[in-house]
């Protein structure tokens, strides 16, 4: 973690690397929620961001998904809610680029703020407005919104921002990319000036910096470290990552373990609950896995370590806290079930293998949305992580056959096979020797591997990295680019254009806010007087049409369909 500026650096120095959530000054209701969720310790960004935010300071944080940034701002927002909240208007506003994130962030706030009775309402495009109006009218403490919908509700007089004490802009670069700059300005103009403003962004383009300069007051700047740590960097570690959807992770882990066949491995998870769940899943799938986390007594932990050292267990599923200081001689593999929250954590974890001249293996499972953090880790450690596809069923079968072949060869070289001669000889009266051998291999193979009933794991590809932008494209200056490198595209007709006040940002915002697409997935946009044309990936065209038909653009229902080919 690097912190800019003199006062900021001093603050960072005071921040103890081992600070607990309680050390961060959080109230008991929040601490209880974190324990319930199985969070054992704050991530680095949380250690840096929580105390100053709790103290009311403005903050400019450069952090990607996977660092724990959501809790880094959600906990202080909740902490600062007054005990008595008689009014119904929001006290905090969190702005996010997409519907997906709005739901996710409001769920996180809801989970952390349960014991405080925090009322959290997400509002985003695509959902019928009346439901959101009812939720707002019922009284709310924190609103999590996409900018377009927030502005819409503000203009209808349904969202009152006069009591907002904290504004958070999350994934701010993404919001600018999607053309929300004007909407953000309009919203910020409605929030009292003496508010606290917090901005999180994965990248810090110039345009964002200038926006921060205008709206943040003496902000503390926090960013992920860029320096390369030399200590703990293990050169003899083969580093591999697999991109998998969350739901496919247990199966993917099983597949990778089957192909790698580690002598002993540690699988790192983020929370106690994840450790318990994954241990159970792995045992259910026939692995000998043991859980290790901070909720266990020393005696329980010693027993687990004994089983790993003695070879009765092959997998240890652990949190960072529980695995701290742990030294296992025979460890061959370290698996990150999620991308670690900080590059330093990654370095610590993989430093446990590749000792004493042996080659170790580090495997990371990456959900598509956390891929940026993987890039950060690569940059910080200065060593490449090879992204590979999860072994397919065919790979796995080939690997199993190879193991059977090796076992047979060993038997041919070493075992006394004479006593089986009579079996083969009687069978050769009826069958060819080759056929007898094939049947014997089949039986041996199935005896060790069981039946071949593996399911295929869907392949996920990473979105290409965002090109390095230095910012100023201008709010309306979305380039009319053609998606030459993005595969098939479809052109959609939208029945509103310049005369209805439609800007490119409205279309990108509507699409990204209401579908799974990101701003950058949207291709060329043409705005004519009465209509607009917009390019989207062919694979997502139907989803976009359905979503846009169900929502409004500039407050109106509009025709949306695929563009008819010109005659
Ligand atoms: P984020 O970077 O905010 O998207 O968070 C990534 C994931 O880490 C989320 O699933 C959080 O629930 C989880 N998480 C955040 N903070 C912690 C923590 N201190 N300990 C364990 N898990 C955490």
From TrEMBL:
SMART domains (UniProt xref): DEXDc, HELICc
Region of interest (Disordered), residue spans: 447-495
Record domain Helicase C-terminal: where: 252-397
One of the Pfam families matching this protein, by short name: Helicase_C
Motif placement: Q motif: 19-47
PROSITE patterns associated with the record: DEAD_ATP_HELICASE, HELICASE_ATP_BIND_1, HELICASE_CTER, Q_MOTIF
GO cellular component: cytosol
Skewed-composition ranges (Basic and acidic residues): 462-478
PANTHER family: ATP-DEPENDENT RNA HELICASE DBPA (PTHR47959:SF1), ATP-DEPENDENT RNA HELICASE RHLE-RELATED (PTHR47959)
Protein family (similarity comment): Belongs to the DEAD box helicase family.
The name this protein goes by in its record: ATP-dependent RNA helicase DeaD
């Amino acid at each position: 973690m690097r912190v800019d500026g003199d006062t900021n650096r001093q603050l960072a120095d005071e921040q103890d690397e081992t600070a607990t959530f309680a050390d961060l000054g959080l109230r008991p209701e929040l601490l209880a929620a974190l324990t319930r969720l199985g969070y054992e310790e704050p991530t680095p960004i949380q250690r840096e961001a929580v105390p100053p935010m709790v103290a009311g300071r403005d903050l400019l944080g450069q952090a990607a998904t996977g660092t724990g940034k959501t809790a880094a701002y959600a906990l202080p927002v909740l902490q600062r809610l007054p005990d008595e909240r008689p009014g119904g208007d929001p006290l905090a506003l969190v702005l996010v680029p997409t519907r997906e994130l709005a739901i996710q962030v409001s769920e996180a706030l809801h989970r952390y703020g349960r014991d405080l009775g925090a009322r959290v309402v997400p509002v985003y495009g695509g959902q019928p407005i009346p439901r959101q109006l009812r939720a707002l009218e019922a009284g709310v403490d924190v609103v999590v919104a996409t900018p377009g919908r927030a502005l819409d509700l503000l203009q209808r007089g349904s969202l009152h921002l006069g009591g907002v004490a904290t504004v958070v802009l999350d994934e701010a670069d993404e919001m600018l990319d999607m053309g929300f700059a004007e909407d953000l300005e309009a919203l910020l103009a409605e929030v009292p000036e003496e508010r606290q403003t917090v901005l999180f962004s994965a990248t810090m383009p110039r345009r964002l910096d200038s926006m921060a300069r205008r709206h943040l007051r003496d902000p503390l700047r926090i960013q992920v470290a860029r320096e390369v740590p030399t200590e703990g960097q293990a050169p003899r570690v083969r580093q591999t990552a697999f991109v998998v959807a969350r739901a496919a992770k247990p199966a993917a882990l099983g597949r990778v373990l089957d192909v790698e066949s580690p002598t002993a491995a540690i699988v790192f998870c983020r929370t106690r609950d994840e450790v318990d769940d994954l241990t159970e899943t792995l045992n259910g799938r026939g692995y000998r896995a043991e859980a290790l986390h901070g909720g266990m007594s020393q005696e329980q932990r010693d027993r687990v370590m004994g089983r790993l050292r003695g070879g009765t267990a092959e997998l240890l599923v652990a949190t960072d806290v529980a695995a701290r200081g742990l030294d296992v001689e025979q460890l061959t593999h370290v698996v990150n079930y999620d991308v670690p929250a900080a590059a330093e954590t990654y370095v610590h974890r993989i430093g446990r293998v590749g000792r004493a001249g042996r080659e170790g293996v580090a495997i990371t499972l990456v959900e598509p949305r956390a891929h940026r953090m993987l890039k950060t880790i690569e940059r910080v450690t200065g060593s490449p992580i090879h992204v590979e596809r999860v072994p397919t069923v065919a790979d796995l079968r080939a690997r199993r056959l190879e193991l059977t072949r090796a076992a047979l060869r060993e038997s041919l070289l070493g075992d006394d096979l004479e006593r089986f001669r009579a079996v083969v000889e009687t069978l050769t009266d009826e069958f060819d020797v080759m056929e007898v051998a094939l049947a014997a291999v089949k039986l041996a193979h199935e005896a060790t591997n069981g039946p071949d009933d593996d399911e295929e794991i869907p392949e996920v590809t990473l979105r290409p990295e965002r090109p390095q932008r230095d910012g100023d494209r201008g709010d309306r200056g979305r380039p009319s680019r053609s998606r030459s490198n993005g595969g098939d595209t479809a052109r959609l007709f939208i029945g509103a254009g310049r005369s209805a006040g439609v800007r490119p940002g409205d279309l990108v915002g509507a699409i990204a806010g209401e579908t799974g697409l990101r701003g950058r997935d949207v291709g060329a946009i043409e705005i004519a007087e009465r209509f607009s044309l917009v390019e989207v990936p062919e694979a997502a065209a139907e989803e976009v049409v359905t979503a846009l038909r169900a929502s409004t653009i500039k407050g109106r229902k509009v025709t949306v369909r695929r563009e008819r080919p010109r005659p």
